[in-house]
Fold Exostosin GT47 domain-containing protein.
Amino acid sequence: MKIWRWVFVGLVCTAFILRIDAVELGRRHPTERISGSAGDVLEDDPVGRLKVFVYELPSKYNKKILQKDQRCLTHMFAAEIFMHRFLLSSPVRTLNPEEADWFYTPVYTTCDLTPNGLPLPFKSPRMMRSAIQLISSNWPYWNRTEGADHFFVVPHDFGACFHYQEEKAIERGNLPLLQRATLVQTFGQRNHVCLKEGSITIPPYAPPQKMQAHLIPEKTPRSIFVYFRGLFYDVGNDPEGGYYARGARAAVWENFKDNPLFDISTEHPTTYYEDMQRAVFCLCPLGWAPWSPRLVEAVIFGCIPVIIADDIVLPFADAIPWEEIGVFIDEKDVPNLDTILTAIPTEVILRKQRLLANPSMKQAMLFPQPAQPGDAFHQVLNGLARKLPHDKSVYLKTGQKILNWTAGPVGDLKPW
Ligand SMILES: *[C@@H]1O[C@H](CO)[C@@H](O)[C@H](O)[C@H]1NC(C)=O
Ligand SMILES: *[C@@H]1O[C@H](CO)[C@@H](O)[C@H](O)[C@H]1NC(C)=O
């Protein structure tokens, strides 16, 4: 049985340290990365290269909302809260707005949850608008650039489009007031109205301590070839099927449900995290959005992410060598997944596993408390620092106005 070959792969992978010729690798696997040695996270220290001013807002925009529902600290959009806390005590923070390179407005737009814990984004546009109105009338900095030197964390499914259904999100488009701002967002899909150009794509939040608690000995053999837990169909929201995940998840199930190399199911076992550490490949197909926390989990647990999401923009893609650590499958090629994955040479698998074992790769995927060098917070700062200095054209002439404060759906204009 083929599967024993993979058990063997798993056994030897931890013992091996492959020597890789960085130049050779770079030539064979060209990536969009800026620099850094092949297979490593781009090393970059943001401290001293940028200064961030944090607006002080009434607590109804942030802390009060969290007090109402503590679940906002653990769901996949929690980065907006942790980013705020991080910046308050970060060495890049300046209390003098005159010397700031970037301005940050701490608004928690994804913390309004249903009883089931799903974030409702319906009030977010009004809330964001209200916050921008407030900073623009109380400080002179917004009007100077109409937000071009401001950044906002908008980790919801479709970022600043503020809707969880793609069609509606596209129809809404990004909030007009954020037209000139930089967005720090989870949503990453090329050529999509909800991915604003120049955005910094971040990983979804996955709780570091919880994952840590499920670590199993590193030498445990990887006896599962392909692993996946999650929905294949979303009957509730997509009764006819085929629309959810653009049919890619349904194709995984239909083609491989009886294939012994595939350990796939809708049931989330209590050993989910442990199982990922026993798997060679972890499927990361799109759902309603191209990303899911599986990507972070796969990296943390050293399981090679098999990314099935055409045109996905991965988190910190300019710093992390995704092409080297993951496997990319076109959505149309899902029926050939078994052939594609079994054809990957053992040494390629070993190399990907070795790269995944690099602690800096894992660090970049997490928002730990307290923050640590190279973590996702620092990657965001690196992204902001790389956009400096601002182009002179961001500063508007006196009286010059670009934004239209009454644009967008009328419902969004109601006071918050
Ligand atoms: C910024 O511009 C708006 C109108 O566009 C004005 O109401 C506001 O007072 C201005 N802010 C400051 C601080 O001057
Ligand atoms: C601003 O947007 C509103 C709503 O779309 C539109 O009616 C109005 O003409 C726009 N104003 C300007 C100055 O473009």
In short: The two ends are 62 Å apart (CA to CA). The pocket of 2-acetamido-2-deoxy-beta-D-glucopyranose (ligand 2) is lined by residues 404, 406-407 (CB under 6 Å). The CA atoms of residues 61 and 107 lie 5 Å apart.
